[in-house]
Amino acid sequence: MPEYNLQGRNVIVTGAGRGLGRAMTEALTEASANVVAAAHIDDDFPELTAACANHPGNIHCVTADIRMSEDCDRIIAESLDTFGAVHGLVNNAGLTFTYIWPDGHKRPEWRATGEMPKFYEASDEVIQNVMDANFVGGDKLARRVAPLMIEQSWGRIINVTTMYRTMTKQGSSPYGPSKAALECATEIWSKDLAGTGVTVNILNPGAGAITPGMSDEMKERDKALDSPVLIEADLMKAPVVWLMSDATNDISGKRYDAKPWDPAKPAAGEAERIGAEAGVLLYSMPDY
Fold first, then answer.
1. Res. 65: pLDDT tops 50
2. Residue 284 lies in a domain
């Protein structure tokens, strides 16, 4: 049973079909929240709906591309039509390295050196799509839900970014810069919304997440490391429910990592141990 009950809360989760988004959608509906699950590709919706079928919260799936303004408008409209209000937004959708360099780990010249491609090898189209999906789309949705949340004096915006060392590692452009923009925006939005009842925080995996489509070779290689860097997406469940609850009414402008979070322990204690100020971009993992 979830530690917090979110009955009556209506939440939008982008990129909800698989990976981190699916795990958070499952957790929120299990905690009795109603979720509008938005995703660009709807192939995963039947499985997601089945996974949430016995949860007390309801789920409504929307096929949408958050890069498109009209699709962002439609996500909000369907949320209001279906559940009557919007209390939470989880900006999770994004394009990652598998989009930027889809065959990168297979290219002989890259495997031989261990280096990722250079920033100047990406096309204009890739740069624009990554920035639009990872930052601009989330910004569009946040600007649309913020006035609704302010009017009801309660709201939660949760942005999924990444570790600073991931943002800046070789080969991470434009993924890293797009996530850095969302990180910076979190700090700004939290200041703009201070005193309104609306909070803005970051929830990160704290490491790479095991997601559908990831090769078995990559998973096995990670397991063989002394300190594996991949985590199961389910580790996002406990912190996202806590962040969406009334327990965080006075918490805004913070960042939390799921990797060190122990879901068996009270969330408030784990948050106190793990949390840092948004915008404090660390070069290495904190000493939790």
1. yes
2. no
Domain span including residue 177: 10-277
- Which residue from 87, 109, 96, 94 is spatially nearest to 10, judged by alpha carbons? 87
Measured torsion, CA atoms of residues 251, 254, 258, 264, in degrees rounded to the nearest 10: -30
pLDDT at 108 over 60: no
CA distance 127 to 45: 28
As a whole-number percent, the residues of the chain with pLDDT over 70 amount to 84
Q: What's the pTM value of the predicted model, to 2 decimals?
A: 0.88
CA distance linking residue 36 with residue 74, whole number of Å: 11
Residue 225 CB burial class (10 angstroms; 0-12, 13-18, ≥19): exposed
User: What is the number of domains present in the chain?
Assistant: 1
Indicate the pLDDT class of residue 224, thresholds 50, 70 and 90: very low
Please report, for the domain that includes residue 54, its CATH number. Answer: 3.40.50.720
Check whether 288 has a pLDDT greater than 70: no
Inform me whether the pLDDT recorded for 245 exceeds 80. yes
Range 191-197 contact pairs with CB under 8 angstroms and sequence separation of 24 or more: 191/253, 193/146, 193/150, 193/252, 194/252, 196/149, 196/150, 196/153, 196/155, 197/149, 197/150, 197/152, 197/153, 197/154, 197/155, 197/249
